[in-house]
Amino acid sequence: MRSAEKSNGIPERKTVCEKCARNKVCERFNCEISTGLVPELPEKCVKKRELAAEYEQMLRERTVSNLMKLRFAHERSQLNEQLKLTGDILRNIPVSREARYSSAVSSKIMSVLVSHGIKPLRTDAFYTASNRLAAEIYFDISQIPPAGSRIRDLVSDELRLHLIEGTAVASSREIRLSLYQKPEYTFKVCSALVCAEGEDVSGDSNAAFTDSTGVCYIVLSDGMGTGKSAAVDSHMVIGLFKRLVCGGMDCVSAVKMANSVMLNKSQDESFATLDALCLDPDRCSVTSVKSGAAATLIRHGDSVMKISSANFPIGISETAEISVAEHRLEAGDMLIMFSDGISENEYMFIKELLLSDNDINDIVSETALKASSFVQTTHNDDVTVIGVKIMNYQ
After folding, report:
1. Which of 12, 28, 54, 127, CA to CA, is 20 to 30 A from 254?
2. Which residue has the higher pLDDT, 52 or 169?
3. What 3 state SS string does the chain have?
4. pLDDT band at 2, cuts 50/70/90?
5. Pairing of strands 285-291, 133-140
6. Could you give the CA distance from residue 301 to residue 334 in angstroms, rounded to a whole number?
7. CB-CB contact of 299 with 331 (8 Å)
């Protein structure tokens, strides 16, 4: 039987001492604790080893109990945050998309596809808030759909509209292809990356994609450290964010969900920054969402502004720290986003490039090429630069 613990935290004597021949001699000994880890024992005690082992076992059990209490409190905090996030997502669903669904257009799209031997599970056509037509076409995951360009051409001819093919999204059961009517604005996106010295894989990940209405997302994530281990974290953040946004979730909720996943990913410390730009092709606006990310520079007209944030990356805190900023743009404006491999000392150089050059490819290439010359320390980090230029749709 394991010794019981008294109110003062000392193990009972009887489990060790009751059968000892010196029990009566040591009767007044009550295992009083000294300043050390092992209680003071009578000099002639013949059970010193057993009592010390019993006491150390009690300390281990007490330590495990305290750790379990801390872990329970931590998991309860995470659960509360996840429940709060779930509530936010459910509240945002009714207003996340201002759309007018059209059963007539949906049926017309289904009919033309079936007449050409293409059999989707269903089609959903709707008009956006700016009165642009968009359509989502769903296929079973076991069925390989025809090329998106063929579906686009068939539907465009049937509806007599210039439709654009959006980003395809796959779930465990379905594949969704999307088409949308040409918006007023479009975006030219280019990027450049330089791996850290001695690495053949960049720890940064980035992606550019559109949702089913043509809203464009540019996302950059910088994993902790460099190389393959950092790339795993940043790639996971990017992939999860993309799936959630393309599934209809708003950017802020997607970042919070990604933060929750990173927290529970493993027992090891694992985090990554997230920098996302949401570009609306109808309103010609950009929404910047940052979590631990570097600044973004925007050239608007003849001036350059900086969007920055001072918060933690994803995967550190139960409550995701997110900085959100929105700006109106116009054709000809440019945006430059980059990872932490770009030193703040280079910001003035980038600003001069933005004001003197209209070629976004040249600006991105020059920024990445000169990055190392602006670093004043021996720190070696991956460099990723992404440029975006706003243009009128031709």
Report:
1. 127
2. 169
3. CCCCECCCCCECCHHHHCCCCCCCCCCCCCCCCCCCCCCCCCCCCCCHHHHHHHHHHHHHHHHHHHHHHHHHHHHHHHHHHHHHHHHHHHHHHHHCCCCEECHHHHHHHHHHHHHCCCCCCEEEEEECCCCCEEEEEEEECCCCCCCHHHHHHHHHHHHCCCEEECCCEECCCEEEEEEEECCCEEEEEEEEEECCCCCCCCCEEEEEEECCCCCEEEEEEEECCCHHHHHHHHHHHHHHHHHHHHCCCCHHHHHHHHHHHHHCCCCCCCCECEEEEEEECCCCEEEEEEECCCCEEEEECCEEEEECCCCCCECCCCCCCCEEEEEECCCCCEEEEECCCCCHHHHHHHHHHHHHCCCHHHHHHHHHHCHHHHCCCCCCCCEEEEEEEEEECC
4. very low
5. unpaired
6. 9
7. no
Specify the pTM: 0.73
The CA–CA distances, whole Å, from 28 to 23, 25, 144, 162 equal: 10, 8, 84, 96
What are the pLDDT digits (tens) for 142-199?
887 888 899 999 999 999 999 999 888 887 788 999 999 999 999 999 999 988 877 7
**Which comes out higher in pLDDT, residue 162 or 5?**
162
Between the CA atoms of 337, 339, 344 and 345, what dihedral angle is there, to the nearest 10 degrees? Answer: -100
All structural domains of the chain with their residue ranges: 1-95, 100-181, 185-392
According to the model, what pLDDT value does residue 378 have? Answer: 63
Exposed, middle or buried, 323 (CB in 10 Å: 0-12/13-18/19+)?
middle
Lookup result for tokens 């393309």: 246
The arrangement of secondary structure in 185-392, i.e. its CATH architecture, is 4-Layer Sandwich (3.60)
Lookup result for tokens 């559109």 = 210
pLDDT on residue 129: 85
Question: For residue 138, what pLDDT band results from cuts at 50, 70 and 90?
Answer: very high
Give the number of other CB atoms < 10 A from CB of residue 333: 19
Output the six-digit token pair for 223: 């994993």
Q: What pLDDT is stored for residue 232 in this prediction? A: 85
Instruction: Give the number of residues written for the chain.
Output: 394
